[in-house]
What we know:
heterodimer; A: alpha+beta; three-stranded antiparallel sheet; 5 strands; disordered N terminus; B: mainly alpha; 2 strands
Amino acid sequence: MTTVKTGSALEKPAANEGPLWEVFIRSKSGLDHKHCGSLHAADPQMAIQLARDVYTRRQEGCSVWVVRSDHIVASDPGDKDMYFDPMEDKVYRHPTFYKLPSEVDHM
Amino acid sequence: MYTQSMDTGPKDERKAVRTVEEAELERRFDAKIDAGDFIEAKDWMPDHYRKTLLRQISQHAHSEIVGMLPEGNWITRAPTLKRKAILLAKVQDEGGHGLYLYAAAETLGTSRDQMIDALHAGKAKYSSIFNYPTLTWADIGTIGWLVDGAAIMNQVPICRCSYAPYARAMIRVCREESFHQRQGFDSLLVMMREGTPEQKAMVQDAVDRWWWPCLMMFGPPDDQSPNSAQGMRWGIKRVSNDTLRQKFVDATAEQAKVLGVTLPDPLLKWNAERGHHDFGPIDWSEFWRVVAGDGPCNRDRLATRVKAWDDGAWVREAALAHARKQATRQEAA
């Protein structure tokens, strides 16, 4: 299993544009933060402000996370089949695998 | 807004000779497309697919950014505070759409700076519609109604584009776009129903000037779009230029009646047999002239963009210098 960096294909920021940040928004309290896009910003504070302006113009969220794209480690899409396939033959992991008498089947 | 369906894909550069491994990768890629699967940034993709998308998405992003200019021109002169607030929100949306799309294009391996340089050097295209001037306040409503209306027709099918980062960006864009069209129609309707004869004439004049350029936004006729088939094959393009144009004409002809304006085409007529409106021939020589750089405002638009970029250079430099200083202090502490 190899890992790859996610986000921009470029590993180093070009001279002017600042590093790339991934933006995660919590749409309302009680829900999890969800990835919604990326942006360039010089520093964390600017990244948060821009994320607010670019991704929450219509009450899309109540909380924002930003993470430097080059700090994210991701699985390699090339390994997808090998890495995630084994679940398919483990049907006993799912509740529907067990046929119970109808009296208790709502369990 | 505002992609333009121009057939601007790079010439087919597929190599005749490929390695066995490459052929196998391409076979798997084709199978994925056929199965209606999405392609993500890190997935293998044919070089030609990457280049076609990069061109289309970056052109689309440039169009959003340049598209702020004709409308921005009227922010300080909006007739009421309400219309000014609406226009500000719309122009801000267009800027946001440009940013979503630049981010999507960057996943294909080109930097933001490279794309912006290409625009400013005149090497990258943007939608020809923004090379027309906004002469009166009625142009702003007409842009919302017709230009954004045409853009929505073009863009909704892209939400199902096979390249997932583009499709995701387009879903966000389309969600916001409907406000743009509705506010435009609303603004025109107020003038047509409550306005003076001069204001009504102003709306008609704006519609007369924008109608044909809007029909051109869908790009050349299908029989003059040789690369369209490949775009369809790859799930980049979902609906043909002529089909989308027809759909737009049909929808708009009805809306024009509600508004009380005449569309400037004597041949526009309902054809019961086809179940569509017939419409007159489009002057494609004008389209190609504007695309090639000789529209009413090409030079002005680009000069304004370049000036804004150059004038903002010190802000970008200061932000980066500040970030470096903070990082150095943190290391020292």
